[in-house]
Amino acid sequence: MPTFLLPVTRRSLNFALLALDEHESVPDWSDTNDLREALGVCDGVILAASGGGDDVINLPSSSTDEWLQCEQNVALLVSKDHRVVKLSWTEGFVGEQSLSTVGRATWNLEEELKLRMGEGGTWAHNLTILRATMGMDAFLRGQLFDLVCGRTLSTSVKRGRIAFVHPLDVAESLSALVTKADIDGRGEKGRGGLCKLTGPESLHAGCTVSPGDAVEEEFAVIRALEAGVQQEVDTTFMETLLGHEPRCFRTFIAENVAAWPRTHPA
User: Fold this and answer.
1) Which single residue of 71, 102, 195, 214 could bond 52 by disulfide (Cβ 3.0 to 4.6 Å)?
2) Where are the domains of the chain?
3) Regarding the domain with residue range 4-135+164-200+232-244, which homologous superfamily does it belong to in the CATH classification?
4) CA-CA distance, 180 to 172, in Å (whole number)?
């Protein structure tokens, strides 16, 4: 069974709990020496936490810069012999001219990985980038939760549709990708690539959100969602990994009914 490195940083307290013994030291993955030593004994690396805000693939915004720097260090140290799986930032917002600051930083990181691991402009067979749509759990915590409940500016996504994805489907897809020898980035053996993870249905947002202090960037995100940047549903790859259809939004609501946000609590 291949061994994968999943870098965490010391400020990410929840992840630091992975240390089983209270006296066990947690490596500092922002330190290039620690990273180089770990990569030397691992078959691959999973990069799964850069981003901003709280949802299926993101850490709290206060840790964003540290996580991005950590993953950039990995990109500079990883070799062409490593298997690299990058769980990217949210679908539709990663690009050189992205509306989001984190989206632009993530694009630069992915370009560095492609340049370092590929040859002659071709995509390396052992590099897979997964890009998911907005997680259903964005309604339970973080900025979107606060904005829905706070209703501080009332900027709606209107008719825009989003193929919300269940967080467990993303986690299980990632697990299947690194444990099943006959499945790679495109569901075929011997090829890497960029793959999308979406939910099984494209839904109206049907809620009101607010950009808070970061008005311009949040407005841009809202406009993009309204324009349908995350409305496409394509579950073929995920079904290959999971062996079943992705979980629908109704299932997620039923699982979290007690925590579901209400603008007017009873």
Assistant:
1) 102
2) 4-135+164-200+232-244
3) NAD(P)-binding Rossmann-like Domain (3.40.50.720)
4) 12
pLDDT in tens, 37-78: 989 999 999 887 654 444 434 444 556 777 788 888 888 899
Rounded-to-integer distance, Cα 15 and Cα 9, Å: 8
pLDDT in tens, 117-151: 887 667 888 899 988 888 887 777 666 666 655 55
- In Å, the largest CA–CA distance within the chain is 61
Q: What's 27's DSSP letter?
A: P
Residue 102 identity (one-letter amino acid): V
Alpha-carbon distance of 41 to 37, in angstroms, equals 7
Kind and range of the H or E run holding 47: strand 44-47
SS3 content of the chain, % helix, strand, coil (to 5): 40, 15, 50
What is this structure's pTM?
Answer: 0.67
